[in-house]
Amino acid sequence: MKLDPKVPSGPLESKWSNYLRDVKLVSPNNKRKYKIIVVGTGLAGASAAASLAELGYEVETFTILDSARRAHSIAAQGGINAAKNYQNDGDSVWRLFYDTIKGGDYRSREANVYRLAENSNRIIDQAVAQGVPFGREYGGLLDNRSFGGAQVSRTFYSRGQTGQQLLLGAYQAMMRMVHTGKIKSYTRHEMLDLVVVDGVARGIITRDLVSGEIKRHEAHAVVLCTGGYGNVFYLSTNAKNSNVTAAWRCHKRGATFANPCFVQIHPTCIPVSGDYQSKLTLMSESLRNDGRVWVPRKKNDDRHPNDIPEDERYYYLEERYPSFGNLVPRDVASRNAKLVTDEGLGVGDSGLAVYLDFRDAIKRDGEETIRARYGNLFDMYENISDENPYKQPMRIFPAVHYTMGGLWVDYDLMSNIPGLFVAGEANFSDHGANRLGASALMQGLSDGYFIIPYTMGSYLADADLPNVDTDHDAFKEAADDSKNQLDRLLNINGNKTVIEFHRELGKIMWDKVGISRSKEGLEEAISEIRALREDFWQNVRVPGEANYYNKYLEFAARVADYFELAELMAIDAIDRGESCGCHLRDEYQTEEGEAIRNDKDFAFVSAYEYLGVNGKLETKLHKEDLNFEFVELKQRSYK
Amino acid sequence: MSTMTINLKVWRQKNTADSGGFQDYKLNGVSEHMSFLEMLDVLNEQLIKEGKDPVEFDHDCREGICGSCNMVINGRAHGPKRLTAACQLHMREYSDGDTIVIEPPRAKAFPIIRDLVVDRSAFDRIIEAGGYVSVKTGAAPEANLIPVEQDVSNTAFDYATCIGCGACVAACPNSSASLFTGAKVAHLNSLPQGEPERKRRTVAMVEQMEKEGFGDCSNYAECEAVCPVGISISSIAKMRKDYVKAVFS
Ligand code: FES
Fold it and tell me: Collapsing DSSP states into helix, strand and coil, what is residue A216?
């Protein structure tokens, strides 16, 4: 298998415009003859579905939730980047591109990232026209803020709910097309398989989550927008229904999975409070603009934080990174939190937390100013922890937040299976080994509004797609597979619940495939994952039946896929013998604990082909070399 | 850490046709730090181990933003705490030995699917009828072309924060969806971008709301009291005003 990224030739600035100049078009009369399935209706899916339907294609959308409006994109707090340069502070498409590719530690494709930066401005135009209420200045023009350590103010925001407002914009655009009849929307439907006919994606199998019915849907192309796989860790900031199943089933049908080990761990989350913990809540990293991170210098110091004198506090980020201090990038902040807690300096009942202290900011600026800046976040913290952050430091700890890896796609956002497109967090494309703040929303919408609609035309104009119907053997086989798997899960009737298995898997992943990784730990993780997977298939207890609404059956099938993905993540983390972005290998760091990236041997995308699971996961690694023609590779340094 | 014993009375219903009824459960070892939904998770783990069907309830983000959760707790949508969705509620609101009654939001337009899970697709159809600005992808003018007064933008935002959970319907003695519909009408009708379709949008959405079988608004304001994000009933006044203007002009 040869993975051809199909990047257009020419200078970086004109690749996309050349592509658009030359792209084949489907005539308006022909568009209505094509049916396109869009799976997942978050930012990428809803925007792609609306845009494709506006062009005249027949679109069918699928979501596991009861409405497209609830997709996990809704939870994004911070904002969305765009290179508008409204602040006249020197921003440009080039600079946004450069920051993104550098932030990703040079493990993404130049051409894709440049196109993302180019599209950023149109996204803001589109959202404003839809009525998305962005923050504005007194003069009525759009406001920006600086985010995630960027040196320019390019982040547009809707208070702390930017994801919600952008999703509602895309959802409303989608519902408008549902009204015209160009989109048929299926809610509470879960994709269980991809149907590939003669090597081409031609449909999907779903389960109607209300009736349990297994259904077959044919189409001319499938667009997968099903988000990331952070929930493999059990605890993450992802919503409870976010899962990898649709993407993983595509992988099992031949789509290569790229950079699975690239997982972003967000430094400012509310720590775990007990065994029953079901998910983690993120607080915007803007808190680090004014909060100071510290732990007691003394181990097991059980004094109240307010009673610990200044010289016994270890402001470890400020000491270790004097120029960036508390504003180091997410991965550096997370890694250091783990280091100090590993040293036994952590705080709280579990010892798995550090302080984020606003005492000095309140002294300097006054409580009112701090309330105006962070009031919502402080309230949220108090509601969850029952502690008042105006009076005592917050306790925070890193949590899994975003997965940069995903299904491999070429410049057209098409996987190696013709006709299967992948957009948003579900693909691997734009963030390399680490995603910058305020760029997830940008990517989802760039893919959906401004890339897929063109590249889809390019594919369909050239594709030879004979009629297939759902009686085809490939549909029957895939539908039977889905049904059999559910029956198998229901019939095990063991003694451990799905959640118990998932929690155990998550612990292995967090301890050994989490913030820092070593070859030894990863190898242990692989054997533990295999043993637990075996146990799962012998001992899991799934309640109820398949022919009605049964959430734990849904969970069981998703956890079954996590067990396979988990092993792939560990394999990839071993294969990648360097530290880059969020991937830190203990063996590849300086004495001071700084990552050592290895561009000579690892400037490539790892794309894995699925060969089967037989006790162990059989997989084959393919490499897409990353050629940097336009930027010079530099070591990140935040010292 | 001390734990509590909680008595639960939970609505169980197999499907839409089933008549359903309350079931009693006793749950030991409940920590005050648990979220309300985590308490239900613990109940479900116990039921599964006993070979019984777990309680079905909708949930996703568990941080009050997606609008999935919508159970009625001791007669109040989302439970006792103001401006708090059920998923943001913690067990510290309760004491050892308390009895908690949990049921689905009840409304003709929200048929029960199973246990606490209801079908809220009527809300989608109300948005479908007109809850958008008709702007095709690519057709948008430059974002700063139309300045929007900061106050106007803030007001629009306040209405736009509706999470579509349906608590307003559950709380309303008439099962009206006026707060939900009003919030979207008021959001879009406040903005210059929404102006060209103001009349059509308002009429279409109001008519769809009636068609779905939601009741009228009689100004009880129960909806505002339970709304987890604090949507104001001024949205309903705005919707009415715009409706009257649209119909009689
Ligand atoms: S689960 Fe999302 S609002 Fe409650």
Answer: strand
Is pLDDT of A413 > 70? yes
Boundary residue ending a domain (A401, A421, A456): A401
Q: Residue B1's pLDDT is what?
A: 58
For A72, A284, B168, B177, B178, the CA distances from B214, given in Å and listed in that order, are 28, 38, 11, 6, 8
**Would residue B113 count as lying in a domain?**
no
Distances from the Cα of A611 to the Cα of A251, A252, A518, angstroms: 10, 8, 25
For the CA of B228, the nearest atom of ligand 1 = 3
> Are B168 and B239 part of one and the same domain?
yes
- Predicted TM-score (pTM) of the model is 0.98
- Which range has the worst mean pLDDT, A90-94, A290-294, A328-332, B37-41? A328-332
Distance CA A607, CA A621 (A): 6
For range B29-52, the mean pLDDT: 97
Q: What is the pLDDT of residue B231?
A: 98
Residue B114 lies in a domain: no
Could you list the residue range(s) of the whole structural domain that residue B59 is in?
3-103
DSSP H helices, B24-116, are 36-49
Q: Cβ atoms within 10 A of the Cβ of A435, count?
A: 27
Query: Is the pLDDT reported for residue A383 higher than 80?
Result: yes
Residues B81, B131, single domain; the answer is no
CATH of the domain at A339: 3.90.700.10
- In this prediction, residue A631 has a pLDDT band, given cuts at 50, 70 and 90, of very high
Residue the block writes with tokens 């990224």:
A5
CA distance A162 to B29: 38
**Is B173 in contact with B214 (CB distance < 8 Å)?**
no
Q: How far apart are alpha carbons B104 and B108 in whole angstroms?
A: 12
| Total of domains in chain B | 2
Same domain, B82 and B147: no
Chain B interface disruption, residue of A65, A176, A559, most B CBs within 10 A: A176
**What is the number of the ligand 1 atom nearest to the C-alpha of B58?**
1
pLDDT tens for residues A264-308?
A: 999 999 999 999 999 999 998 889 989 999 999 999 999 999 999
Domain residues for the domain of A492 are 476-625
Residue in B137, B150, B194 nearest the CB of A138: B150
CATH number for the domain harbouring residue B179: 1.10.1060.10
